Amino acid sequence: MEKDHVLVVAVVGSPNVLPTGGALRSTRSIKECSKHFYVNLVIPATCKFTRYELQLLKDGLGVQEVNPVEAKLKILSDSRLAFTYLAIPPKALRMLLRIDKLRARPKAIVVLNEPYDCLCIGRLLKEELNVPSLAMIHNPLFYHYESRRKAITNAFRLWYDELYRDSYVGKLVRKLRARLELLLTHSRIAKELLKSYDVLIAVTKATFIEMGGEPSGKFYVMDPGVSLDDEDEKLISKIKENVRGKGNYIVFGGRVDALKGFVEALYAFREICKRSSSLRLVITGYISDRLRMRVEEFVRRLGLEDRIVLTGTVPRAERFRIVAKANLMLYPSHVDAFSYAVLESLHLGTPVVAYDIPALKLYYDGRPGVRLVKEGDVEALVAEALNILSSKSVEVEPPQLRSWDEIMQEETNLIKRIMLRND
Asked: Is 416 exposed, middle or buried (CB count within 10 Å of its CB: 0-12, 13-18, 19+)?
């Protein structure tokens, strides 16, 4: 395919650093862009790579240039503090970041991940180069509804109260950090940052609704702009053929994180265990040694030390196998744009009990195999889980989605459209 003689600058967090659905999706977007455009991938300072890893990244994504951003302050290199970019005026931020001059002049700036460090870097490039800009918004950047903000605040409180009760100072500092993040991301400064972009793309309608859903000439909504990967479909089909029956366990659908409802999942599982003497809860995904110690201490306090399995990071095929053999997926997540975890679980034939946050209500409510309860209602979560576990069989059916080819074609056309503004 002949490439357009233009440069698209993509500011993105790598999936090697951020193993999330948004990061995986942005990887697909970069690969698609590199088929059509001359791409310089600008990597924020919060993503740390060796020179060898950068070359592997460049080759794997098919881009022409990779340009890592360097920060002069350590705080600007910490992914947990990406929101602090909002507190620094653009002129001061430009002096605190080292962004090498791009070898070819771009016709557009495209930001493919929504963390505020990426968005702030994208704004700096736009102002410096005076070209149109586009930002992809995966998860909501802020929450319009007070009930959602309260639920998220409560999730942080539970997390720090339970996992950091042995460290008053540590707990206080972390609560203050979470509070500061909520204040900054819901401030006028954050909204002004978004206004600096020419086009904003909500990857799903749920994201648009969570952020207020106000009509805007610059907001484009994909409904949804996600799907199941072709390779994953083949892998899931193969695993389903080889799985015989269910294991004596349920699986936690999210990562070990406050906003994925990890603490609430353990509260719910403790109650479920009162009806079953041998059921286990399997938790997959990366967990640091320090966090593992805190989780194991929390588990002991709940009296669940023999009932929780922390697998750590497992290959994708192994995670699919674990989900396929589970009787149920517990998924009390507070934040999502669509939820690959739920989609994958349904494709693997495993029912899901989750909170009724907008993303899940919009795309999964009423779907066979999905039970949604009021956000934060752990008792209802337990009741629905027990109903499923006591059923002889539960019908499970995944939603029908567009193909990735259709989604990527829509996205590429949007990028080409903003390029025309500079001609």
From this structure: middle
398: DSSP letter: P
* CB-based burial, 215-235: b 16+ in 10 Å, e otherwise: eeeebbbbebbbbbbeebeee
What's the token pair of residue 329? 């997926």
> In whole angstroms, what separates CA 160 from the centre of its chain?
21
Number of H helices, E strands in the chain: 16, 15
Task: Tell me the DSSP string of 96-121.
Answer: HEE-PPPSS--SEEEE---SHHHHHH
Residues 6+ apart with CB under 8 A from 314: 284, 322
CA distance 49 to 68: 9
d(CA 222, CA 254): 24
> What is the model's pTM?
0.89
Q: Distance of CA 383 to CAs 283, 302, 358, Å?
A: 21, 19, 21
Torsion of CA 149, 155, 157, 159, to 10 degrees: -150
Closest CA to 190 of 82, 61, 56, 58: 82
**pLDDT tens column, 86-145:** 999 999 999 999 988 877 778 889 998 788 999 999 999 999 989 999 999 988 999 999
- Distance, in Å, from the CA atom of 214 to the CA atom of 22, rounded to the nearest integer, reads 23
Residue 235 near residue 132, CB atoms below 8 Å:
no
**What is the C-alpha separation between 64 and 47, in angstroms, rounded?**
19
State the Cα–Cα distance between residues 40 and 412, nearest whole angstrom: 16
- The residue with tokens 């947990």 is 80
DSSP assignment letter at 269: H
- CA-wise closest residue to 145 among 334, 423, 408: 334
- Summarised one tens digit per residue, pLDDT across range 229-288 is 888 899 999 998 888 889 999 999 989 999 999 999 999 999 999 988 789 999 998 899
